[in-house]
Specification:
Layout (H helix, E strand, L loop, with lengths): L1 E4 L3 E4 L6 E2 L12 E6 L7 E5 L6 E5 L1 H4 L9 H4 L10 E10 L2 E4 L5 E4 L4 E4 L10 E2 L5 H6 L1
Antiparallel strand pairs: 1-2, 3-4, 4-5, 5-6, 6-7, 7-8, 7-9, 8-11, 9-10
């Protein structure tokens, strides 16, 4: 399947690799189908690209790569729609944002993906986690890509 994007141009995505977000993402509820793409220049960075809006691509990373002590508690009610039979079926990524101080990670609201079912959902974790965890300033390659 071909999708047009403003960031990556026209790309070919296997329809079996698409992710379905039943409720969309907060603020993007109408975007329910996404492709998870690798960044061509940075293996730490991925992109959730909407298949229905060519202008919507969200930078994501594996949080433990940058915050090794990251521990997340997610209420079961948040995970129920993903139908996870085993937590090892899940992939966890967090959104990378840019503000006037640099790049940050949203550790409070990770995105959980059921790899087997190809479904995803952004959830709100329990506990005191940062919405804007600063990325280490030495991560120059990530800054160039995001």
């Amino acid at each position: 399947m071909w999708i047009n994007t403003t960031r990556f141009g026209r790309i070919d995505v296997d329809s079996a690799d698409l992710l379905n977000f039943q409720s969309g993402l907060p603020g993007l509820e109408q975007c329910r189908e996404w492709a998870l793409l690798a960044d061509a220049e940075n293996d730490a960075l991925g992109w959730l690209q909407s298949t229905t809006r060519d202008d919507v691509a969200i930078a994501v990373v594996s949080p433990r790569r940058f915050v090794p002590q990251y521990q997340v508690r997610i209420p079961r009610s948040e995970l129920t729609p993903l139908r996870l039979h085993d937590i090892r079926q899940a992939q966890l990524v967090v959104v990378v944002s840019k503000n006037n101080k640099g790049l940050t990670l949203n550790l409070k609201a990770p995105i959980v993906i059921n790899l087997e079912d190809r479904t995803g959902r952004q959830v709100v974790a329990s506990g005191d986690l940062s919405l804007h965890q600063p990325l280490d300033h030495t991560l120059a390659t990530l800054k160039k890509s995001a």
